Automatic annotation (TrEMBL):
Taxonomic path: Bacteria, Bacillati, Actinomycetota, Actinomycetes, Micrococcales
Entry superkingdom: Bacteria
Locations listed in the record: Membrane
Annotated GO biological process: protein transport
Organism: Agromyces mariniharenae
InterPro entries given in the database record: TatA/B/E
Pfam families reported for this sequence: TatA_B_E
The protein's name: Sec-independent protein translocase TatB
Membrane topology: Single-pass membrane protein
Keyword presence, Oxidoreductase: no
Residue ranges crossing the lipid bilayer per the database entry: none
Keywords: Membrane, Protein transport, Translocation, Transmembrane, Transmembrane helix, Transport
One of the record's GO cellular component terms: membrane
């Protein structure tokens, strides 16, 4: 809730106790309670009004699907850019294509073989200009 943790709320409450003092604190606590109660009543009234205006269709709505927190913009864009029809029947898997032969004389494999050839007490090559 607005980045407030329990500890922060506790600190705010302690500061409020010191600033308001024991004389005014009960009055402001009662006002806060009335405010919370009125907000809860307004939310309940709005929900009841939506139920009343929508009629029996209200129970058929899947509200979790309409929750904006579930939307991932990356997923939405990825789905929009792919030409895959979500309602199409699944296609059979494509056959596996064999890879090309590996070049045994590649610089990477030569370097890898050199590293494997190092003995137990032999130090690895070091380039002082690379650091």
């Amino acid at each position: 809730m607005f980045g407030l943790t329990f500890e922060k709320l506790l600190i705010i409450g302690v500061i409020a106790v010191f600033l308001l003092g024991p004389e005014r604190l009960p009055h402001y606590a009662a006002q806060l309670g009335r405010l919370v109660r009125s907000l809860r009543d307004m939310a309940t009234g709005a929900k009841d009004r939506v139920k009343e205006e929508m009629g029996p269709d209200f129970d058929d709505v899947d509200w979790r699907k309409l929750d904006p927190r579930q939307y991932d913009p990356r997923r939405i864009i990825r789905e929009a850019l792919t030409d895959v029809d979500p309602f199409a029947e699944p296609q059979p898997p494509k056959p596996v294509v064999a890879r090309a032969a590996v070049n045994e004389n590649s610089a990477y494999l030569q370097h890898k073989r050199k590293r494997e050839v190092l003995g137990a007490g032999e130090a690895a090559p070091f380039d002082s200009e690379a650091t």
